[in-house]
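Here we describe the complex-level prediction in full. Unlike the single-chain runs in Section 2.1, the two entities below were treated as one system.
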Amino acid sequence: MTTQQGERQDGAAQTTDVLQAEHISKSYGAVTALIDVNMRLARGEVLGLLGDNGAGKSTLIKILCGFQPPTSGRILLNGQDVTLRSVDHARSLGIDCVYQDLALVNQLSVYHNMFLNREKVRWPLLSNRTMKRLARQYLDEMGVNIPSVEADVAQLSGGQRQAIAVARAVYSNAKILLLDEPLAAMGAKEAAIILDQVRELKEKGDVSVIIIAHNYGQALEICDRINLLQHGEITFDKPAAETSVEELNDIVIAEYRRALAERQRQVGEARGTGNGKATA
Amino acid sequence: MSETAQRAPGVAGGGPAETPGAAGALEGLRRAGRFLVKQREATVFLVVVLLIIYFGVINSTGRSVFFTHAALVNLSVIAAPIMIIAYGEVLLLICGEIDLSVGFIYVFAPYVMFYFVQYYHVPGILGIILAILVVGGGVGWLNGFLTVTMRLPSFITTLGTGFVLSGLVLTLSHGEQAPIPPVLDNLGKWFGSSANFSMISWAVILLVVFHVLLRNTRWGLHTIAVGGNALGAREAGVNVPRIKYGNFMLTGLLGAFTGITIAFQTNVIDTFSGGAAYQPMFYSVAAAVIGGTAMLGGSGTIIGAFLGGAVLALLTNGFEVIGISAYPLQIYFGGAILIAMIANVQFARLRGEGKVR
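The structure predicted for the assembly as a whole is:
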């Protein structure tokens, strides 16, 4: 299996890295989710983070956006060592996130969700009119079809909900966007809207994106570079142009086969000893 | 999705038709029906109107006394404490918690006021404010600490702190009633001592304040977000512990304030009767829920709590006025609450399933 740790391949890349994760590990009690993850994100780059379910992708994203601290390791932002104290803190440093669960509140309207925790306020009151207008404007700009920004998000389809969560992050003026499966519940058209958004950000050049995806084709289409996370480790790091859906598939399937064989061997051993006891 | 677009104006303002003519009248009636189903508070408001009509207009004994000054003052004095405490319970229920200790805060606060003013000669108004802050804010903070930081369910937390408080007040007072300290006499009228509408005025002022707090401030928005999706709110960066601590403290402050107004109103500080603590607590939670606040969090309104308080006060007072004997009173009372709730839940179900357009 190809194992390339993508740390400092050349001096130039290092200086333009906006975000670096070094030796990040995360355990929840006895469960280890991440083991010594090293990752870097260059300015204006779109990095695809791929990997199976349970590989630790969301855990990594939640560390990078300040939702939870790593067990060990450090994060460098523009070369500076930072400790992300909270989501708010990370946001103030220009990092924003679309969570896999979208972090939408069903009981609130579309525009309140879009501005949740960054409300437009004319103290002490909410500027609902401003928020409604901006929400409408952003969604129209993105080409998302939502009849009323005053509707509760509970009434919307999965794709619409996802579009709202993406719009919320895209229009936050963040310099680093972390998108955890932004395409999961999307139809073809809605997926195209999101992919166009990412492309547009890429053209502007000063926003860097980490995007988690399951569809390798989409990932290769949109990303500059691909990282593969397996069992809590980054096992693959290549420019998107130098890899293919086939290669990625082969790696993942080979790993699956290896793990399966391993498990069967363990089960076989366990059964063997069990039988031994039974006969004895 | 076009339904949502059509629904939005109905939610915003709604109301009967602008179509003229005979067909318009029918359409207006249908719209009124839809409005009633859609607007959470409208059903409770209807119940309030029906109760007033029943007790004040239809019932022959009620007709003669219901609208007299004395009867209305009496009604408002029953209603106001339920309403004021219910505003706090609404905020707590919306963010997924409950406060059962508020009734004991209500009993404890006036005694602490007495203690400060009588024994430590704290000047009048300061004694009142201090008692509200120390008892309401303090116990509210403790409830928040135990619930949020120590991770106890708030049902248990507040039951525990409530019992502790009731024991504390009995111990401090030796189970004796305390008088209102004479230096406070001239302040009493602001809190409801004389037979006027000062208590219900407080209830109305606080109705506006808390309605705006819930509907038009970040605090209210975040309270709904915390109750609707706690994880999502946290992911969006909402400070969930702060919201919960804050709402426990607000509820405590309202409970302490109400307890002091009631002490002035009855002109005695009641330290002993258990019912004095249970009643405001049960009634205020009931008022919040009758007013359409979800016990599981995420939704509720202050206006609903106001109307829910009115329903409970009308029932209590109305049955008294028409002279139902004391023994079966609770049967009617409980039955009426259940009927109001059935109407609420069924209308909410219709709303939720979108059957009514």
